[in-house]
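Backbone-to-sequence.
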């Protein structure tokens, strides 16, 4: 999607963190932007941060609510007309080990991080197809999808690996339709997704997460994301810092594949 000016973007989780950075960068690129976020206080902060920067509207949205996302896709068309870019960015972080017996936290995490992306794709893709002008879908994952974090954040890694698989499958499905598909892969970013205490609506329990104060500025992450979209990148990596770890992980996979090849030759 090389030409952005005058086109319409929808960014979920767009009022804070990486989403706010993407919203700002998209406005800077000349797009009209609909910022969707679940929390009213985040939307208020987004309004203040993006004031007078371009044509932007705000929409309260829980991405885990399928009917609400479908309604939001219709509302986006009413606001601006044709939607060309969907950024499935909304996500949460929580300390949860896949081996734990905490089903409620697991369900909450997966409903937002994975279900929210599915809902976004299912609701908005028909809109992108219908106008025939092409477009782009970008899904926010994490380096944790490629390099799983053990222990109390393993469930988060699993959710983001699911987004990776979903994105690759979607890209293959849309081949030849002039709708690009990217996976955004942040590394360490100053974001509320895991930096703050997370409060679960089910029981009001707060979960302490990581201190990401040393991470990348979300505004810079947003600029990287938009540059990757314009360049048509399949994978938009925020940093090459984990390259050695990535190579070691994929080398291990290839070694086991070679074992299979040797077995088949025997």
């Amino acid at each position: 999607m090389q030409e952005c000016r005058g086109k319409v973007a929808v960014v979920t989780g767009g009022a804070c963190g990486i989403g706010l950075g993407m919203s700002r960068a998209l406005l800077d690129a000349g797009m009209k932007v609909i910022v969707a976020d679940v929390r009213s206080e985040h939307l208020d902060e987004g309004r203040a941060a993006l004031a007078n920067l371009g044509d932007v509207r705000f929409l309260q949205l829980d991405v885990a609510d399928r009917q609400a996302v479908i309604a939001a896709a219709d509302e986006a068309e009413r606001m601006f007309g044709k939607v060309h870019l969907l950024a499935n960015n909304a996500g949460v972080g929580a300390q949860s080990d896949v081996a734990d017996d905490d089903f409620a936290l697991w369900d909450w995490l997966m409903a937002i991080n994975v279900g929210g992306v599915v809902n976004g794709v299912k609701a908005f893709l028909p809109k992108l197809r219908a106008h025939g002008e092409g477009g782009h879908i970008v899904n926010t994952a994490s380096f944790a999808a490629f390099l799983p974090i053990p222990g109390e954040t393993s469930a988060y890694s699993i959710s983001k690996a699911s987004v990776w698989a979903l994105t690759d499958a979607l890209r293959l499905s849309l081949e030849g339709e002039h709708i690009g598909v990217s996976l955004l892969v942040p590394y360490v970013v100053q974001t509320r997704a895991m930096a703050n205490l997370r409060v679960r609506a089910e029981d009001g329990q707060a979960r302490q997460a990581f201190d990401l104060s040393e991470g990348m500025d979300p505004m810079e992450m947003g600029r990287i994301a938009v540059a990757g979209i314009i360049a048509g990148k399949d994978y938009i990596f925020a940093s090459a810092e984990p390259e050695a770890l990535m190579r070691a992980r994929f080398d291990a996979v290839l070694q086991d594949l070679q074992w299979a090849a040797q077995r088949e030759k025997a």
